[in-house]
Amino acid sequence: MPDKPNIAIAGITGAVGQEMARCLEQRNFPIGNLKLLASARSAGKKIQFKDQELTVEELTGDSFGNTDIALFSAGGDISRKYAPLAAEAGATVIDNSSAFRMDDDVPLIVPEINPNDAACHKGIIANPNCTTIVTLMGLNPLHREWHADKIIASSYQAVSGSGAAGILELETQVKALTEGHPVQTSVYPHQIAFNVIPQVDVFLENGYTKEEMKMENESRKILDNKELCASVTCVRVPVYRSHSVSVTAQFREKPDVEKARALINAAPGVDVCDNPSEGLFPTPLDTTAKDNCLVGRIRQDIVLENALTFWVVGDQVRKGAALNAVQIAELLI
């Protein structure tokens, strides 16, 4: 890998693609050439990067010549079609979709947790699901100390997880309701304004959604713990940005609350925010547009033995997607 690799971003016009470019700029990532790729309808648009005005090009099978690292955030179908072509052209692909996450030949990486696995790639590296990343940023320091076997979790997921359309639907519904007009739904099966919806992604035969099963399947791979079991309920909430997750984790050994706080504070990319008597605990606004995840409400669980319950919050567009991808790129150089 050259000292200043040539970078391509596939899906630059989406929220995560734009955040990828922002992270590259803010972290002073060394770039030789930056190529911005999107669909044909977005080709020709101008995007500012540092002191340059770059033109968006149409994503095709020939887009990746002379590319060292290709950051993909254009959806699973696009990734399945073009990521192998980019890898064949010599680029290392970092893919934000779910297309390759459970492929045995594709590392699934959170740089603060399993960075060494990135070296085993065969041209494609996968970015985990955003809710999985946020959860594991809080859980991993505890798992390394006491070994987590079981997780019970409920997520509170922002509408930006559905892209710009989710944000627009929330804004439009709030405006309609405050002006006394009927509410229209399109992105979500129910009104999201002033409401919560216990469905993220499609339901499976076992009664869980695909989003909920990602937590178990991806966590097993990232933590290298095939015995980990997770029962998860994912909920869409009327928040613009940053996901929150309530987690109860049961360990093989008895955990300690004060040591848990110290372990989390010592871990990279995550901080403790935990003094409920003073009203100090993480909220989505505390992490929006921030790199680090925050953990609070750490306490001994009073139902399960050897268990802790905690609350973890993180910006799912940034650490849950774009920043994590750029951090993986940093591992490569």
General description of the model:
The chain has 333 residues and is of the alpha/beta class. It has two domains: 7-128 and 321-332, NAD(P)-binding Rossmann-like Domain (Rossmann fold, 3-Layer(aba) Sandwich); 132-316, 2-Layer Sandwich (Dihydrodipicolinate Reductase, domain 2), CATH 3.30.360.10. 30% of the residues lie in helices and 23% in strands. It contains eight helices and 14 strands. The protein has helices at 15-26, 76-88, 130-146, 164-178, 210-223, 257-266, 284-287, 318-332; strands spanning 7-10, 34-38, 46-49, 52-55, 57-58, 69-72, 92-95, 124-126, 148-157, 229-236, 243-251, 270-272, 293-300, 307-314. The strands form three sheets. It has a six-stranded parallel sheet, with helices on both faces. Strand 12, helix 7 (284-287) and strand 13 (293-300) form a beta-alpha-beta unit. The longest helix has 17 residues, at 130-146. The mean pLDDT is 97.
Write the layout of secondary structure elements.
Layout (H helix, E strand, L loop, with lengths): L6 E4 L4 H12 L7 E5 L7 E4 L2 E4 L1 E2 L10 E4 L3 H13 L3 E4 L28 E3 L3 H17 L1 E10 L6 H15 L31 H14 L5 E8 L6 E9 L5 H10 L3 E3 L11 H4 L5 E8 L6 E8 L3 H15 L1
Parallel strand pairs: 1-2, 1-6, 2-5, 6-7, 7-8, 9-10, 12-13
Antiparallel strand pairs: 3-4, 9-11, 11-14, 13-14
Helix pairs in contact: 1-8, 3-5, 3-6
